[in-house]
Design a protein that fits this description.
The chain contains one helix and seven strands; from the N terminus they run E-E-E-E-E-E-E-H. The protein is mostly beta strands. The two termini are 27 Å apart. It has one domain.
Length: 149
């Protein structure tokens, strides 16, 4: 669990959260609760990461300068994610992450940090069960994949 800060953040800082950067790959975050922050990426084309069965109060924004490379590489999955404050940033990724899957996230809206794809052409990404995380089966993508081993 990522708990709320007990003291205010220093002026001019950003709240991040679960972070990837610089070719981070094959990481899984599962069964969590984030009371602050976001699903951060500091660019550098992280790829093939999974965030599943997480509840987040999406209060942060991502970091990373555009010169550091693409925000997302291929094969990200955000599966069964509940956003308590409806902020889309870094959670709904079907319009920015190539070959990604956004499955069963709660309804979200843009809030200020609106990203554009770093790649031209179709992204070949999917969004399923949007607005209905409670309907997603399996509930936890990581556990389901492990059960098949």
């Amino acid at each position: 669990m990522l708990a709320r800060r007990t003291v205010p953040a220093p002026a001019g800082t950003q709240l991040h959260g679960i972070n990837v950067e610089g070719l981070s790959s094959y990481n899984v975050w599962s069964r969590g609760r984030m009371e602050m922050g976001t699903f951060d990426t500091h660019r550098g084309m992280p790829f093939a990461n999974v965030r599943t069965e997480i509840t987040v109060d999406n209060t942060g924004s991502h970091g990373g300068d555009a010169s550091a490379g693409p925000l997302y590489g291929a094969r990200f999955a955000h599966w069964n994610v509940t956003v308590t404050n409806q902020r889309a940033g870094c959670v709904r990724i079907d319009d920015i992450a190539p070959y990604s899957a956004t499955v069963g996230i709660s309804e979200v809206r843009q809030f200020g940090q609106i990203d554009v794809p770093d790649f031209t052409g179709p992204l070949h990404s999917r969004i399923e069960s949007y607005g209905h995380p409670e309907a997603v089966q399996p509930r936890n993508l990581y556990q389901a994949q492990r059960a098949l081993r």
